[in-house]
Specification:
globular, homodimer
Chain lengths: 467, 467
């Protein structure tokens, strides 16, 4: 492969691109924690300045009832196709903090990886897009299509107000294709593109017994214990033998895998051993009976417990019956499951399972629906050509286990097909301590995206109308 | 009833006695929290000064590998009986702090109750003993028997080093009877004495899956979730229908209730409605099938969950599979259960219940064995006469659901019978926010104890040997 003007520009700028990303990662833009509200705003302003610097011609902060988003555009010619880039500038919380080898907001480079909260998810991939635009504008003088950019400020806290934002700015956000870099490839030498995302439904279950903690000697054994009740409720949500979710109607709308799809999953060269090597030492691949690991992740719904708390968790012992115990639950959904319906069904199952002597309250919030883009869509194939050029091998097409609710919002509200070109790696530890982004993937991502816009512009070009 | 010299002394001094207790309660002597080590020491020094002021003639701090105890004595005549008073000057942790109406270490009087952490458990009852000694020494010039006092500094963190202390000071602590005020009466107008205490075994269970939190979209449904595994393990420890503990051999050594004992429990005038009224609004009396509430509390063993934690418990949602989840368990034991054996049996049941894909670690610590003192013991009957004099009605004899490990240590090491004369009330909220001690019970307690020493001295008097 010969170096092109774009590749040369990127190679020359790469150290600067890394330095800029380090600065961006220093901002602790944790959207789930209201204490970091000012940091999320500072992060938005940083993206806005970076977009203008990269070559976007208009940029502004869009306020929401929650944390601010950034919108930018460079409109070249109304006859050219238009693409919308989506990303997010907020990050996950950082606890447990003591498991980080270096501070989450003091980016550190070790062994070719950049360690920081948000490095891969999603600040690194947002900055990748800005640098690809910069490369095209500086090396070629202009973009081959119209580009719009929306960078959200609360993806990691559920994109609660993002649908309102989209609804209010439908015309401005409309485009021929949505491009999102917020996913991972199978491996450094096994490039892949994502063609499906799971949906999400979230619940918080609170079990209440006495109005205050009680002495376990004076009352234990004679009143219901909220932790015992919660454990019983949660344990009942999966079948202990098949690991299937027991909630009635949970699987009603799941589109079963065809033989062809199962063959396609089986063709992906990722065994359980390699999967577990990425899973932070989890001792075994465990999941729904009758499905492979990749099928469980890509094509089957799950019900997971994300947190649990109640009673005394400090040093020593405290002999109490706690007043309450609670847990956070999320369900990952596949086509054609409806997040609202699933949240209601799980809430009903939880309430129905409450043993005597406690009361149960369930808060539900429906996230996005599952999204699938056909592999043969022209924009997907255009991105695949750019990946092949930079990685030297054609990408696999995968369905991702994660959820990106905004992708579902754009799909439902604007009918936009989504090209999910993420440059993370499976061992990036997103959402966990010691998140990192490979600097090699960062560099390849910038080059791939710079080339991709030309491929996409050609693939989506409309026949010129005569004037 | 006519006022005696003792009653008159107590009545005249009561406001001062309350003021002194308020000062004692200001010391945050939380023994479970190492950060409060200096406060526990200050609390010990406060008791030492108070004992000397009250009339004890020798007093000293006894160091342990943990928090310090206080020893004091007033030896009148070797031919008189000797009693040992046991109490503790340390207190429970205070969380959840935001549920306290006034700060836990800023004592506040409302409606005749004194609110503070440790008010009833056990600082108020320790100070009651000091004031009863003061009344006897000041009003009568001398005690009717030899008195020893040991006030421990880590009862609320498991009395871990107290057995070593007793073993090292066996001769000094030897006495004809042990008197402990660390329990509650049935009600203000239903005085009672405690003749049985349950034993205790404690466990902490930690379930580990991956070495770090994992993204629930990228890994959920394909690796085991430690919260799900913990819920399954805990839920399996009780039968959901009978509420019996399912651990093999758990009930092997339980002495079954005789018909006479069941009749005696049934005679106690405390219905489930009144029980629930003390239970901070717990909605129902729930427990082991086949037993009444009072039988469950006094004569049956329990397995209770005191705390649970794992994953994300902050605001918003965090879509992770947590690396670990853990829970604290305590078992209340009845005669003839052995705490070490029960801890081992529960640990084995927990380990055996671990589902695939996680590892389980269990820390056990055995507390005291169950203790029972015969109702017709002369010292118990002597205390009953003092209670009758002050309360105007004879006490009921109860078995208490709680545990006081040091009582078991004295029983086992020195063969001392225990008189458990506590002046708390069931709604004192010990171990919970807004702990209080009734000032009326505090005053009655001081008068009862002052009279009790004369009754006990007479009851235990040995025939004088000729010289």
């Amino acid at each position: 492969m010969t170096a092109t003007d774009l590749d040369a520009y990127c190679a020359a700028g790469q150290d600067r691109f890394t330095g800029e990303l380090v600065e961006f990662l220093r901002i602790p833009s944790i959207s789930a924690d209201p204490a970091h509200g000012a940091d999320v705003r500072r992060s938005a302003e940083h993206v806005l300045a970076g977009a203008l610097e990269a070559g976007f011609t208009r940029a502004e902060i869009i306020e929401t009832a929650g944390n601010p988003s950034v919108y930018a555009e460079r409109m070249v010619d109304p006859s050219l196709p238009t693409a919308l880039i989506y990303g997010h500038h907020d990050v996950q919380p950082v606890d447990p903090l003591d498991e980080w080898h270096t501070a989450p907001f003091e980016p550190a480079i070790r062994g070719g990886d950049l360690f920081a909260r948000g490095a891969a998810d999603d600040k690194g991939q947002v900055w990748m897009h800005l640098k690809a635009v910069e490369a095209l504008v500086r090396a070629r003088g202009e973009l081959p299509l119209n580009l719009k950019l929306i960078v959200e400020g609360e993806e990691e806290s559920g994109s609660i107000y993002f649908e309102d934002l989209v609804a209010e700015h439908l015309d401005r956000l409309r485009a021929d294709v949505l491009v999102v870099s917020d996913t991972a490839m199978v491996g450094r030498d096994r490039p892949s593109l994502t063609t499906g995302l799971r949906g999400l439904a979230a619940l918080e279950v609170t079990v209440s017994g006495p109005g205050a903690d009680l002495h376990s000697g004076r009352f234990g054994g004679a009143v219901a214990n909220p932790i015992a009740a919660l454990a019983e409720i949660l344990a009942g949500l999966h079948d202990p033998v098949t690991n299937r979710v027991t909630v009635p109607h949970f699987y009603d709308d799941v589109r079963e895998l065809t033989d062809q799809e199962r063959t396609s999953f089986a063709a992906i060269p990722l065994g359980d051993g390699e999967f577990l090597a990425m899973a932070e030492g989890a001792p075994a691949a465990v999941g729904e009976a009758g499905f492979s690991t990749l099928e469980r992740l890509g094509a089957r719904p799950t019900l997971e417990f994300n947190g649990i708390w109640g009673g005394y968790a400090g040093p020593g012992s405290k002999t109490i019956i706690p007043a309450t115990a609670a847990a956070k639950i999320t369900c990952r959904l596949v086509a054609e499951q409806d997040p609202g319906r699933i949240a209601r069904e799980v809430a009903r199952a939880v309430t129905d399972a409450a043993p005597p002597g406690v009361s149960v309250e369930v808060d539900t919030s429906a996230g996005g629906r599952p999204v699938v883009t056909p592999v043969d869509h022209p924009a997907v194939q255009a991105m695949a050509r750019a990946v092949t050029r930079v990685f030297g091998t054609a990408p696999l097409f995968l369905r991702e286990g994660g959820s990106i609710p905004p992708v579902e919002i754009f799909s439902r509200r604007l009918g936009m097909p989504a090209v999910l070109a993420g440059f993370g790696l499976p061992d990036d530890r997103i959402h966990a301590p010691n998140e990192k982004f490979s600097l090699d993937m960062y560099a390849r991502g910038i080059r791939t995206l710079a080339h991709a816009w030309t491929e996409i512009a050609l693939a989506l070009a409309r026949p010129r109308s005569t004037v």
